[in-house]
Amino acid sequence: MRNSTIPKLAGLLLAFMISGLSAQSQEIQGQVTDASSGQPLAGVNVFVQNSTVGAATDLDGMFSIVYVATADFTLVINFIGYKRQTREFSPGDNTSNMSIALDQDVFQGETIVVTGLGSSRSKAVAEVAVARVDVEALTAINSYQDFSQLLRGKTAGVDIKKASGNIGGGFRFDVRSGGGLNGNEQPVIYIDGVRADHSELKFNYVGGQGTSTLADLNPEDIATVEILKGPAAASSYGTSGSNGVILITTKKGKMTSGVGKNFNVTYKQVSGTNKQSYFYERKDAETWEDVNNIFSPDGGVIEGRNISITGGNAAARYYISYDRRYEEGILKTVSNNYMDRRSVRANMDVFPSAALSLSISTGYTLNEITRPENDNNTFGWLGNTLLFANSYVFLDSAAIAAIEDITVSQRFVGSIQGRFRPFPDTPMLSGLAFNATFGLDDSNVRIDNTKSPDFRYGSIGTRGRRYATVRQVQQFTANVGASFTANLGGIQSTTSITSQNFDRRYRRVFLSKTDYLTSLIMNLGAGSELTSIDEVFSHRRESGILLSEEISLGNQFFATLSIRQDFASTIGAEAETVTYPAARFAWRADQLGILPSLFNMLKFRFAYGETGVLPGLDDGIPLLWEAEEGGVGVGGVLSAIGNDAIEPERVKETEIGIDAELFGIISIEATMFKVNAENSIVGRRNAPSTGKTASSVPFNVGKVEGSGYEILVQLTPFSSPRNRLDITATGTWQQNKVIDLDGAPPIFDGFDVNVITEGLPKYEFYLPIVLGAKFDSDGRYDGVDIKDDSLETSGVAGDGRYAQGNPLPKMYGSLSGNLKLFGFLNLYALLETKQGHVINNITARFGARFGNHSIRNDLGVKLGLRDSDPDNPIDTLAVGSAEYIEAAHAYARTDGGGASKANWLEDASYVKLREMSASVSLAPFLGMVGLQKTITDLTVVVSANNLMTWTNYSGPDPEVGWNGALNSFRGQDFLTLQTPKSFTITLRASF
Amino acid sequence: MRKSRFFILPFAISGLLFLGACDEYVQGVDPLINVVEDDLLDEEANLPFLSNGVRVRFADTHDFLGVLSDGLSDLFEFDQSVNSATFPTFEQLDMGLIDLDNNSVDGGFRRLGELRFFADNLVERAAALDAGAEEVVDALFVGKFSGAMARYFYAANFGLSETVGGGVIDGGPFIPSADLYASAITLWTASLAHTTDANVIASINSLIARAHLFNGNYASAATAAMLGLSDGMDGLESEYSSVSTNYYYQQAGKGRTQFVVANRFIDYVTADANEASRVIIDTLRSNAIPDSLRSYQVKYPLSSTPLPVITWQENTLMLAELALRGQATGTPLDLVNDVRDSHGIADLTAVDLDVIYEERDKELFCLGLRLVDQRRFEGELTMTTWHLGAGTWKYMPIPENERLRNDNID
Questions:
Q1: What is the mean pLDDT of residues A541-555?
Q2: Contact: A499, B287; criterion CB under 8 Å
Q3: Residue A165: pLDDT above 80?
Q4: Which of A496, A625, A689, A767 to mutate to test the interface with B (most CBs of B within 10 A)?
Q5: CA-CA distance, A159 to A833, in Å (whole number)?
Q6: CA–CA distance from B244 to each of A284, A630, B343 (Å)?
Q7: Among the listed ranges A412-421, A617-626, A858-867, which one has the minimum average pLDDT value?
Q8: Which residues, given as ranges, of chain B have pLDDT below 50?
Q9: What's the whole-model pTM score?
Q10: HSE-up of B375 (CA within 13 Å, CB side)?
Q11: Fewer CB in 10 Å around end: N or C, chain B?
Q12: In angstroms, what separates the C-alpha of A384 from chain B's closest C-alpha?
């Protein structure tokens, strides 16, 4: 591998770049150690500031670089988890045999975090709470299927929820208290500076589930994820940033460890299995054995292979990887239950001179995902085994197994980011810098769903059907900016202007045909009857100008003031531009020097910012017509009713926080936030008799308030290069309330369960209350007693409904521990909890309706309403007895009728043992066989995900939702596939 | 700081220059391809597009309301022992215990609202254009005819309370069924001015007769029916396709059998095999008793099978009934037997209102008309016509969505 072409080319490039340098050189050489233990540190970056010269330490902590010094220079020693050090030298100074001891940095204050568009600060002085996830460290000790699995339980203020256990299934982020009312409450996601398509593909109804476009993202390629959690931090990103911004940075090339080494090759092999995590019992359904039989007893296979090459030096670095992840779900039928993802990445950072740096990021993914039909679906496995007391009433099991649903996604995400300082050596102008990012997210998705004429499928009969759709999305991002940094005494000022532009084109074509004569030929041409065909296209642009001023007063006071002017194609005629101000401040109180020594760091911060959510693309157009096909051909029907006065929703956030590092072993980040959304767009439905009901009509009348707290505590009781314990706890408490809808009637999801209405939290379960059973004059069960709201004298009552819990947890958090022992053993575990939320068990409700709810069936026998099963005889209770009355109330509470929906609301609080791993590094032993110079890392990792769940929820999984992730159906489990538990063993070797 | 201030100015100037560019940039997007703004359709050339839209929504409303109406009547039954019968909203209809937020009823009411608006909007647009243009004539006919049908559908199917029929137009006050029937008749009559097709004219007269009959105006009904469809004439149909499917096929037939037919239809066919030519049913397995069977309609065997709007057989049965009521000429027995003959069914020997009621049950199988018959024959026959208990809905309720958003409705 050392003779491979790529490193040679990189070397030639480097030689070319540095060919202009020729003068007397000096060697800078030494060893870097951990200050507390004195043990050597490997992989430490040592480089000359504002130069292209640097290296990384080897396993013995040694480094050696050659530098041509023409003036005084600064040597920087930087390593994650340790405080950065600098040393000043003059030409000719002795720079040999240096001993450098680094202090650990529990708060990780030296880490540079992005604090806004075009701005970054070290975490120690950042004025906002930025969640930063070191993904590279996580993927070293665990194996993740996708981006959602990677982030769950890792950050305060950001909750991640998967819609189902489907491989590649959709997921949503719930950031803090959920912003305002509009949009889908999702953060904007950037991958290496490119705004990424974050959508759920739900075409061709297969029960409600969709696949996430972010399933294309290979976790192995990600280095870090930073999350700006609300308008206070994300204001500089402008409209659509009201639910924060997620910044994904892929891996970059690294200076290789050790003297004289050009590159590292890392190979990673993953093997494992996905297993059924919940086993059904009779309490779930009479057909519980049939349900368990749909799952593979051996589980689904997980296989992953990844090879990456990284190398370079201070002038040019590269990272190249190839990854293939094949993963099967837990259903027996593998053919509609797997993901096969192949991805290639080539990243390069080039530093031609101290004035110019370029980062090139390219990633291509080919991802094939097959979906089983589940959820609210008569063609699904769960719908055919959980609803009725006899299984497969809708479809034969062979027919279900024969359904093919394949999503093939091809996606390229690439960017070029550059920074140019034209006058690095001119005192007056050295602070002038220009930066630019140009990038593209280009995805092409094809979905095929095939039902064979060999089987009978509901309305399709035995005619067979094939559906195909092609979805193309191109998103261009172009940011151009300039900044000037000036220092005067202890004051540093950075003034910047950035233009951010975004262009999105969306195209989709779909068609379906039926009447296939043979299953042997199922292309679209072989079907004789067209059942649907259409195309959709939309094009929108957003543009914004950000003017910001960052000020640092000494090491104590830090402030950023910014204002952003936004433009967007989607904004209505009377709101062509929107202005978003932001201001934030930080004070390092520890720099006063008067605090007790226990405070290594104490920072107070305050931030305020505004963003918004754009109206829909056609919301500003009063009346739109579209073509609809009927039996007489195509004709014009209403498509949408808009409002030409519509404006974006405005979301304002205030954030106050304290960051502290205590005793050198504890760090605390605590934040209180308050969100006010106004001008929220509320869709008012016209009365149906007007005929203008193709859509709701948007008005800027809504107001929402949210608030909460979040905390991150990290404890490192002991630390040395060989032994270290890190304990991390996160906690988030949030609440929100709809303040005003201008008197609009409650807005419900399609099942009339989740509501948006004044005075209640968003998506509250809003239903009639079931009091218990009613009895006739003889004392016999006489139906369900529903609370009569006409007797109420207070509250929201009046429509017979009451607030009965919310699908969003009031509190969520995590506790993780990472123990490193003897320099080669690493143990890791992550517990995650969500508390105070409710799930609607529609699966059980419909089971009760259709006689498959064993508890209700038994109660029915006790009440004399149902014949006893001869194999399971149950005595009928005496009418009027205490047992009878108790059974009657229980029977009423298992009623599945429309008025009794509240019977099926359950506490969904849970604690999950989300991740666990043990890894053994064999690197320390390689020296015994003389391979330590050849094989730099050889690690075996055994890991598990979703291992245990403790919950009161009676269904299989308390965190699923039947209708995908990004809509108003929230916290509803309707025949939804459980999240599997997975076990993997990983072998990682670096050369 | 002085340096910094020095640079703020050029940065601010740059910002102002950028602003103009931003404005232009976001305006430069390609138009949507699948929608058109309302005022661009105010041309004669675009009327056929809108006229066809009204036809599409008419067919879409006709079958949907037909299934729901037959579901509330004693024609269809919601039997959970039959595979595929899962919609709770259909169960409510079958039981006559209908929540105001019943999604199916809401869907039907919404479709009907669109049909009424599309039709009236078309008439309004066409009336402002050259009255002689072919497109305008067709638009005026389609708009008035469909507007009449919309008002008729309200009158026949919806109600403010369990026993008070009527509907709402454009967010206005509740309009009783009688007034809606009258409005429908006015519009149907007006539509006659825009067509010369004899079958269509006769069909409209038959529809006018039906509206009068349902409204209890037997003399007017007889007058119109005499001008209506006669033996062998083609009536009108709602058309469907594999893309826009017949809802009877889709939810109460071969597509998915949420509703089965009442067992008396099996009895009809068992008693006289020739009845199978108009009571077209097939059997399917029920899970209630092992190997037991229920029947479902296959009158609409394909997703594209058209749904009759009016037939000459219905007009003839109306004449028979009206003759029995002493309002029309003709022999009721002959008229009934004419209809039976058209299906190869043996003649009856006597006829009274009970017979008319049963003949209509068979002849108007799965046309969405049974519900009205159950209501209007109540108390006139030897049998009880309403099949559900007291307090049940005899109309589909004007849904909660209308009541919440229409200040004119209590």
A1: 92
A2: no
A3: yes
A4: A689
A5: 10
A6: 39, 5, 29
A7: A617-626
A8: 1-5
A9: 0.87
A10: 27
A11: C
A12: 10
Question: What digits encode the pLDDT tens for the residues A1-15?
Answer: 344 444 444 444 344
Q: How far apart are CA A343 and CA A411, in angstroms?
A: 9
| Residue ranges covered by each domain of chain B | 38-243+305-379+388-405
Mean pLDDT for A193-198 is: 95
Classify A237 as helix, strand or coil: helix
pLDDT exceeds cutoff 70 at A982 = yes
> Which of B242, B286, B289, B305 to mutate to probe the A interface, most A CBs <10 Å?
B242
Pairing of strands A623-630, A599-613: unpaired
Q: Per residue in A198-238, pLDDT tens?
A: 999 988 877 778 889 999 999 999 999 999 998 999 999 99
Instruction: Please tell me the distance from the alpha carbon of residue B287 to that of residue B302, in angstroms, as a whole number.
Output: 26
Of A565, A628, A693, the CB nearest to B19: A565
B375 vs A561: CA distance, rounded Å: 73
CB contact (8 A) between residue A689 and residue B7: no
Which amino acid belongs to residue A607? Answer: A
| Chain B hits for A688, Cβ within 8 Å | 106, 109-110, 112-113, 399, 401-402, 405
Note the CATH number of domain B38-243+305-379+388-405. 1.25.40.390
Do residues B154 and B180 touch, judged by C-beta distance below 8 A? yes
Strands (E) across B136-179 are located at 158-159, 166-168, 174-176
Find the mean pLDDT for residues A387-406. Answer: 92
Longest alpha-carbon distance in chain A: 108
Task: Confirm if B208 and B185 have CB atoms less than 8 A apart.
Answer: yes
Is the Cα torsion angle A89, A91, A92, A95 positive or negative in sign? Answer: positive
Strand segments (E) across B191-303: 236-238, 260-261, 281-286, 292-297
How far CA A594 is from CA of A83, A599, A607, A974, B54, in Å, comes to 22, 10, 25, 60, 80
pLDDT of A361 reads 97
Q: What is the pLDDT of residues A107-132, one digit of tens each?
A: 677 777 777 787 788 888 899 988 99
What would the DSSP string read from start to end of A297-357? TT-EEEEEEEEEEEEE-SSEEEEEEEEEEEEE-SBS-GGGSEEEEEEEEEEEEEEEETTEE
Rounded to whole angstroms, what are the CA distances from A125 to A202, A547, A558? 43, 21, 7
Distance separating alpha carbons of residues A692 and A715, to the nearest angstrom? 60
Complex ipTM: 0.93
pLDDT tens-place string over residues A5-63 = 444 444 443 443 444 344 567 889 999 998 877 888 887 888 887 776 778 888 788 88
Q: Among B25, B32, B49, whose Cβ lies nearest the Cβ of A635?
A: B49
Per residue in A342-382, pLDDT (tens digit) is 999 999 999 888 789 999 999 999 999 998 988 888 899 99
In this structure, what token pair is assigned to residue A553? 């007063």
Do residue A623 and residue B99 have CB atoms under 8 angstroms apart?
no
The pLDDT tens digits of the residues spanning A849-869 come to: 989 999 999 999 999 999 988
Q: How far, in Å, CA of B309 to CA of B66, rounded?
A: 11
Whose CA is closest to A731, among A714, A713, A705? A713
Domains of chain A plus CATH, in order, are: 5-102 (2.60.40.1120), 211-253+264-769+804-845+906-990 (2.40.170.20)
pLDDT in tens, B218-245: 999 999 999 999 999 999 999 999 889 9
Nearest chain A residue (CA) to B242: A531
Binary contact (B3, A691; C-beta < 8 A): no
Query: Which of A200, A222, A70 is CA-nearest to residue A154?
Result: A222
CA angle, residues B336, B341, B343, in degrees to nearest 5: 110
The amino acid occupying position B124 is E
